[in-house]
Amino acid sequence: MNTLIIKKDDLRHNIEKIKEFALKSGQDDKGNSLKIIAVVKANGYGLGIVEYTRFLIDNGISSFAVSTKEEAILLREAGIKEEILMLSASGIKDELEELVENDITLTLSSKEDAKAIDELGEKLNRKIKVHLKIDTGFGRYGFIYSKRDELVETIKNLKNIEIVGTYTHFSVSFFDEKYTKLQFERFINVIEVLKMNEIEPGILHVCNSAAFLKYSYMHLNAVRIGSAFLGRLPFNDYLKLKKIAYLESEVTEIKELPKGFNIGYSNSYKTKKETRIAIVPCGYMSGYNVKAEDDLFRFIDKLRFLKNDIINLFKREALYVKINNEKYKVLGRVRSISLDSRYNRKTSRNWR
Length: 352
Prior knowledge:
The protein is an alpha/beta fold. It folds into 2 domains: 228 residues, Alanine racemase (TIM Barrel, Alpha-Beta Barrel); 103 residues, no CATH class. Helix content is 33%, strand content 22%. The chain starts with a strand and ends with a strand.
């Protein structure tokens, strides 16, 4: 049995550090402090969405974001009454109605969404709360930033929708400052156009975890925090956030291998002498050493990963396990598959 061990004290440490940093941003022009929207998508990043959300609530977080209808409904069925934003958009009327009935704030990102949500509002005889999504160069959900006339015309014709927020999504905030600034400028220009046309955009939020830590002037009214709570960021953060979880398994077999014996997928390791090894039933199915497939990245990204792999060759602790508090190298290649494997439901969780 593999168990994900979640260290509550370290998670609590991260939450407090993030809250303290948010307080340093001061207040907006209406006297409101910076709002933290906790992103708990993908089953709470593998921590268990209900348990994780409850822990965040107990530690002062009161606003959440999810990416699927199932996640949103699961939280409501668990008795969680706090504000929930649906980050993905939908024009499916039955799905929208279920979300609205469960008091989920919707994302509005296209003319089709607007029509479906507005018609639903008329049917239910109520104003439906939405966050307006602007695509500033990610290529996913959202009104294209340059099509401002279309955006204004769409919004002006809505009668049953209340815009309570407007946001965008940065694509490379963890390493490309130039492009992130460009996305931010595009977003601010769209907000100015909305206000010129007497459209109130509600709270503004653009920062994910990386941008929250790197670009304080982009904080606006709210920030969306996901991986920072877990202490897992692709750069060294000055808040000194802690990694809050580790995977626990067991040794199921110990065996002696002769010299010149291959280990692992692709025969990636060969013993140089007679070697005693331990077999642990934990790997890509449990999310251990899961990596994204190479074809998901640009050539420059592959070079960056190659550089890191070369550096890791000379680090004994690059990939290891601990047995009785002693480090042991992982021999051979741990196969990688879809990122979704880290949420394998066969892995239990233990909050310590």
